[in-house]
Amino acid sequence: MQVAEAFKHAFLKQMLLGFQASVVSPKSMGFQERKSAIKLSADVAMAVARGTRKWTRGLIAGLSKEHQNRSFLQLILGEQYERLMKPCHSSWKIPRCKKIVRRSLRVCCRRKKKKNQVGVLARTLVAKRTQELKILVPGGESMDGFSLLDETLDYVVSLRAQADLMQSLLTTIEASKLRSHSKGTLPERKASYVGN
Amino acid sequence: MSSRRSSRITDEEISELISKLQSLLPESRRRSMSRASAAKLLKETCSYIKSLHREVDDLSDRLSDLMSSMDSGSPQADIIRSILRS
């Protein structure tokens, strides 16, 4: 499963905006600060490129919770920042449903406890893994069942694309650096060869 | 993925989602999962997500390294600016 071409373009563009703000700008940063800015740019780029999904909202919300991120986020997102920060109104429904689901699960478990020990173990394991997944997928705490799996699928595809695109950026910049370095030394080498 | 009848999700949709998720996992993990249980699939998915996070973190390191020497006057900076203008 692949991301769309439009995703790749949007990602790279947003990533370059992040570079411009963190690297090309006159302000000089230390390694850690620059790395954090790059990582932040990459996550923002991924969320913006994907569009509106539960996990993209969760990601942006999570990133902007950190105070130190806010001014950088506003800088690289521009007018998109306000739009992306608007709260998602459907999310309030879910905590109420969760209570009802949990209550009904508890009643079910009490009835089945004596019968199916193996089943209980398997379900506990699934519940444990599901909880872990909810932490890993941005916005996962308010998702359950089908929507969690659906968002996970989308998130994993986007993560893979994010890593691939960052790798190609890395390769491209490394290559262009090599070219600009070699351009400087080539005339000298020619001269010495001719001299012999 | 909305059905016109109701908001209930069919078994078919669930198994389709699960098989799609399984197909995303890297080859090495998939091979040992011929009889995938729900718990195993979730575990492998969590592992994969964590490894992708590590990969992105490492790439951020390398990009930061690479750009340490890139100031606003370098040719790379010019390239970036011209791409953004287009």
From TrEMBL, chain A:
Domain IBH1-like N-terminal per the UniProt entry, residue ranges: 5-67
A Pfam family matched in the record: IBH1_N
Signal peptide positions (record): none
GO biological process: regulation of DNA-templated transcription
Keywords: Transcription, Transcription regulation
InterPro entries: IBH1-like, IBH1_N
Protein name: IBH1-like N-terminal domain-containing protein
Organism expressing this protein natively: Ensete ventricosum (Abyssinian banana)
Taxonomic lineage: Eukaryota, Viridiplantae, Streptophyta, Embryophyta, Tracheophyta
From TrEMBL, chain B:
Organism (species): Ensete ventricosum
GO biological process: one example: regulation of growth
UniProt keyword terms in alphabetical order: Growth regulation, Transcription, Transcription regulation
InterPro entries attached to this UniProt entry: bHLH_dom (IPR011598), HLH_DNA-bd_sf (IPR036638), PRE (IPR044293)
Family the entry assigns: Belongs to the bHLH protein family.
Domain BHLH: 1-52
Pfam families to which the protein is assigned, alphabetical: bHLH_ILI
Signal peptide: none
PROSITE patterns linked: BHLH
A GO molecular function held by the record: protein dimerization activity
SUPFAM superfamilies: HLH, helix-loop-helix DNA-binding domain (SSF47459)
Name the record gives this protein: BHLH domain-containing protein
